[in-house]
Amino acid sequence: MTRFRRCLDIIRTAAVITALVVLTVSGTGCRPGPDVAGDDGASPEPITVGLLPIVDSLPFFVADRNGYFTEAGVEVDLQVYQSALLRDTALQSGEIDGMVGDILAALALKDSGTDVRIVSICLGATPDEGRFAILAAPDSGIETVDDLRGVEIALSPNTIIEYVVDRLLTSHGFAPEEIRDLVVTKIPDRFQMLMSGQIQAACLPDPLAAFAEHQGARLVLDDTGDLNVSQSVIIFTGSAIAHNPEGISRLLEAYSRAVEAINADPDAFRELMVEMARLPEPIKDTYPVDHFPSPQVPTKGQVEAVIEWMEAKDLLGTSLTYEDIVTDEFAAGR
Question: Does domain 47-125+231-324 have CATH number 2.130.10.10?
Fold first, then answer.
């Protein structure tokens, strides 16, 4: 039994809602790839990637299960972490070479002194990929965006969640003083408080947002319209990029094959998505398998908008530019 299969066995036994917010630590490992030299004669080094068990990570699991990493000639070890904090700490300590995160996380790592670069988007090339939603509690009386003025919205501060809330509401004409945050850091707590009516509104990512809707929460606003504000991205350390570019290139080659396979027949990977992202039973058969973009870097506008927001929040101690955090060495720009 491979370490990958053992990981899926562990995933099956996790609690549904807790699992949606990545509360199981596990490791997966790909089969060793053939020692095939690149055009420059150098063999790629093994690569370790840190993941959260969320929908965004699906192409990595597909590439592993289908043997695409092996066929690309690169050995990839997928490590699954219980939280973004543990994942980021592993990257900072050198335990992993890369990870799936978001633009804000990459900038925070860079600002803290960890040399990282974004090499590609995972989800978010288009607005309908990787949804975040602001939802109202059942029986809250909140029905429209204007009803959110002055209402406390539960979120985790200084994260992509707060960024999304600010961008969505300001795009609807909210003044800063009309946006009120309620700090509820843990997503399962946020979900439970919303559904029990302890809070009036909350921002949640899919698939938990979809589950909340299924259970009676009202969707007020999400980021699937004209404003594309959230991207998950593949991040590698500067050291990995400098010393193992062939390995990263081959990893993205295998990743691209996985994306093509998912997009060609999404339902063929539903069972894997349900196991890996631990979808709740009521939505496991209806929650759509995301369309994944081919490897490509985020746009300058997408990155600079996050930088501007972080600077306004005093979350950056250094001045960073698009070129400081993004490399197009491995994936095409847009």
Answer: no
Structure tokens at 169: 């509401």
> CA dist 297 to 41, 235, 241, 332, Å?
27, 11, 15, 6
With beta carbons less than 8 A apart as the criterion, state whether 98 and 156 touch: no
CA-to-CA dists, residue 202 to 61, 98, 177, angstroms: 30, 31, 18
* 127-178 tens-digit pLDDT: 989 999 999 999 999 999 999 999 999 999 999 999 999 999 999 999 999 9
Find out whether 325 and 107 touch, Cβ atoms under 8 Å: yes
pTM for this predicted structure: 0.86
Domain boundaries, the chain: 47-125+231-324, 132-222
Quick one: which of 180, 149, 145, 146 has its CA closest to 162? 180
132-222 belongs to CATH 3.30.1330.60: no
Q: Which residues contact 257 (CB under 8 A, 6 or more apart)?
A: 63, 66, 68, 72
Q: What gap in Å lies between CA 244 and CA 164, rounded to an integer?
A: 34
Write the Ramachandran bin of 256: left for phi over 0, alpha for psi from -120 to 50, otherwise beta: alpha
Query: What 3-state class would DSSP assign to 79?
Result: strand
